Amino acid sequence: MTLEQELEAGLAQLGLELSAEQIDRLNQYLALLNKWNKTYNLTAVRETERMVAYHVLDSLSALPHIQGVRVLDVGSGGGMPGMLFAIARPDWQLTLIDANHKKTTFLRQAAIELGLNNVEVHCERVEALAASAFDVITSRAFADLAEFVRLTRHVLADGGVWAALKGVYPYEEIAQLPDDIRVVSVQALHVPGLDAERHLVTLARV
């Protein structure tokens, strides 16, 4: 099975209907990630074949459970999940933030080469981000839940939610959340080609 076939089969299993142009952009993103990774160390996953499941499908598995227009991806790294959300949801406005200059250089260049006009990239720590109002604040392997909330609560819109992509069910992290934060849901995610637990934790203010 080619990379393109693996990607299309995975998208079908996730129930995501993307256009041929969007699928082409996902393939271009993979090629860029693989090319820049050799110099910039964007991800520990070195094989493009593994990137399909570990990065693309892993990120996109959360998409059906997220609703919003203004979305902030914290600690975006190589663009997971923010860049992938931007490709799959062109009607969303994605802000990607990372404190690593090399990673944000990649993100800016990828947005240009992929023609993504709905992506804005910031190179700074999220706690320094000017007060804004995001419908959804997401992250993947950024920090534990309490720290994630603490660093970003100043930019969450009224009625907005946090959507954290996690591995195993984060019992301890949930137990350590502050009293004014409630768990909206913990959704088990099934990622095609990935034999590992994945969960999407959605949080909101009480």
- Name the beta content range: 15-25%
Number of self-contained structural domains: 1
**Quaternary structure:** single chain
Number of helices: 7
Rg for CA atoms: 16 Å
> How is the CATH topology named?
Rossmann fold
Question: What would the principal axes of the Cα set say about the shape?
Answer: globular
CATH class: Alpha Beta
Widest sheet, order of strands? 3-2-1-4-5-7-6
- Approximately how much helix is present in the residues? 25-40%
Polypeptide structure, described:
- The protein is α/β, with parallel strands linked by helices.
- The protein is globular and about 50 Å long.
- It has a seven-stranded mixed sheet, with helices on both faces.
- The chain has helices at 3-14, 20-40, 48-60, 82-88, 101-113, 145-152, 171-175, and strands at residues 70-74, 93-98, 119-123, 134-140, 156-166, 181-189, 198-205.
- Helix 1 runs parallel beside helix 3 (48-60) and helix 2 packs across helix 3.
- 37% of the residues are buried.
- The chain has a single domain, classed as Rossmann fold, CATH 3.40.50.150.
- It contains seven helices and seven strands; from the N terminus they run H-H-H-E-H-E-H-E-E-H-E-H-E-E.
- It catalyses: guanosine(527) in 16S rRNA + S-adenosyl-L-methionine = N(7)-methylguanosine(527) in 16S rRNA + S-adenosyl-L-homocysteine.
- One of its GO terms (cellular component) is cytosol.
- S-adenosyl-L-methionine binds at residues 75, 80, 126-127, 140.
- GO terms for molecular function: rRNA (guanine-N7-)-methyltransferase activity.
- Its EC number is 2.1.1.170.
